[in-house]
Amino acid sequence: MRSNKITWLLAALVLAVTLLIAGCDSAAPATGQTPAETPAKSAEQSQNPGTAPGAGQTMQLTIYHATKDAMYLVPETHKVPVNSHPARTAIELLIAGTKNANLVGVMPPGVKVKNVTVKDHVAYADFDDKLIKKGNGGSVSEILLVGAIVNTLTEFPDIQKVQIMVDGKKIDTITGHLDVSEPLSRSEQIIKK
Predict the structure, then answer these.
(1) Whether 38 contacts 48, CB under 8 Å
(2) pLDDT > 70: what percent of the chain?
(3) What residues does each domain of the chain span?
(4) Beta strand pairing status for 122-127 and 169-170?
(5) Are 63 and 154 in contact (CB under 8 A)?
(6) pTM of the model
(7) Half-sphere exposure of 54 (CA within 13 A, CB side)
(8) Strands 122-127 and 161-166
(9) If DSSP codes are grouped into helix, strand and coil, which group holds residue 66?
């Protein structure tokens, strides 16, 4: 577990150094969308307090996509009908990609989510094997992919860490650059402010 944290920190440090070398732009992205004004209530049941899911009720989910220059993740909000599996819905939206011309999706083509469960503040995001078979790119691509999954799910207040899985099993890495064998925490450093 300590090795996992060190690897994640080293990856974040490499990205931070890259950002410093390339020059940082502190301007807000021109996406036309803002992060959710209030975070999603719960990954298990995100809805207005005291109301049951019903027709016409919506919830706001925040999904992360990459900037075209592959330097940052940018939050994108979606208003969707209330349902009993918002964490899975968030991952499905992440897989669907973005319609924003200034952003690019990070998920490999054709990947499918099998399940998202939450236990003891850890989300277990289980994907089919296309996550590792279709994953391409270098370390930055893998950092953005993992960051998008983890940051999207940790938008829910009851999720503190995310374990990425393939076909129901823990994996060591997605494309060979980042250790994902243990649950990962949110990475604020790669979010464009």
Answers:
(1) no
(2) 72
(3) 2-25+33-45+57-190
(4) unpaired
(5) no
(6) 0.74
(7) 5
(8) parallel
(9) strand
